[in-house]
Specification:
Helix content is 81%, strand content 0%. Keywords: Membrane, Peroxisome, Peroxisome biogenesis, Transmembrane, Transmembrane helix.
C-alpha cells in the first residue's frame, strides 16, 4: 500500500487542469461558449445600464459566436462520416434506432453546411442577400437534429432500463453462480450505468440547446435570458466530459 501511495501521481492544480482543458479544441470552444452565454445574460439583466457598455457586451457576444463558427467549420465531415458508418456497418441498436441516428447526424451535417455558406457574410467579407433565409433553414435542420437526439436518448434510456431490470430479475433466479460470472455481471452493470448517465447528459444538453434554434426560427417564444441560462447549463454539463478527457 505504501508503494502504491508513493508511485501515485499528485493531482495537478486547478490552473494546470484549466490550461490542459483550454489547449484542446473542444475545451477552448466550450470556454468561448460559456463566455458568450454570460455575455448574453449580462445584456438581458442590464447589469451595467449604460448604453455603451451594453453595446460592448453585444459586440463581445457576436464576435465570440463568430469565433466559435470557425471551430466547427469542418465538423460536417464528421457528421456525414457517422452517417456513412451507420449505413455501412452492422448495428446492435436495431433498425428503428439506426434510422433515428441517421436522421440526427444527417440533419446536423446539413445545418453545418448551410451555416458555413454564410460565414463570409458574417465576416463582412462578402455580404449576400440570401443570408437570412439560408440561416433559417440551417437552424431548422439543427432543431430537427436536436429533437431526434433527445428522442433517441429517451428511447435508449428506456430500453437500457428495461433490459437491466430483466437481467436483474434473471440473475435473482440463479442461486449458484461462479466468481467469473459475478465479475462479468458487475462489469455489465457498470457499463449499463455509464451508458444511462451518458444518455441523461445528452437529454439535458440537447434539450437545453433545442431552445436556441426553436426561438431563432420562431417556433418557440422564450426570452433571451432563459436562452442564456440554458446555454450555461448545457455548456457546463457537456464540458465536464471534455474536461476529464483533457486531463488524461
Amino acid at each position: 500500500m505504501a508503494v502504491q501511495k508513493l508511485t501515485q501521481k499528485p493531482k495537478p492544480s486547478f490552473l494546470r487542469q484549466f490550461s490542459n482543458f483550454t489547449r484542446t479544441t473542444a475545451g477552448l470552444e466550450k470556454t468561448c461558449r460559456l463566455i458568450q452565454s454570460f455575455a448574453q445574460i449580462a445584456i438581458e439583466l442590464e447589469i451595467t445600464p449604460a448604453s455603451t457598455t451594453i453595446a460592448q457586451w453585444e459586440t463581445a457576444r457576436s464576435q465570440i459566436a463568430l469565433t466559435r463558427r470557425f471551430f466547427r467549420f469542418f465538423s460536417f465531415i464528421d457528421c456525414f462520416s457517422q452517417v456513412y458508418g451507420l449505413l455501412g456497418g452492422a448495428q446492435d441498436q436495431g433498425l428503428f434506432m439506426t434510422l433515428v441516428e441517421i436522421g440526427r447526424w444527417s440533419c446536423l451535417g446539413l445545418y453545418l453546411v448551410l451555416e458555413d455558406l454564410t460565414i463570409l457574410h458574417a465576416m463582412d467579407v462578402h455580404p449576400v442577400a440570401w443570408n437570412a433565409p439560408v440561416l433559417v433553414e440551417a437552424f431548422k435542420f439543427w432543431f430537427y437534429s436536436l429533437a431526434l437526439s433527445v428522442f433517441g436518448a429517451v428511447c435508449g434510456l428506456l430500453f437500457t432500463s428495461s433490459s437491466s431490470r430483466s437481467k436483474t430479475s434473471g440473475n435473482d433466479e440463479k442461486k449458484d453462480t461462479k466468481n467469473d460470472e459475478k465479475a462479468v455481471s458487475k462489469s455489465d452493470d457498470s457499463q449499463s450505468k455509464a451508458q444511462r448517465t451518458a444518455l441523461m447528459k445528452r437529454i439535458v444538453v440537447d434539450g437545453c440547446d433545442l431552445l436556441i434554434p426553436g426561438v431563432f426560427v420562431g417556433w418557440m417564444q422564450i426570452s433571451d435570458l432563459v436562452i442564456g441560462v440554458t446555454m450555461v447549463i448545457s455548456t457546463v454539463v457537456s464540458g465536464g466530459d471534455a474536461w476529464v478527457k483533457a486531463q488524461a
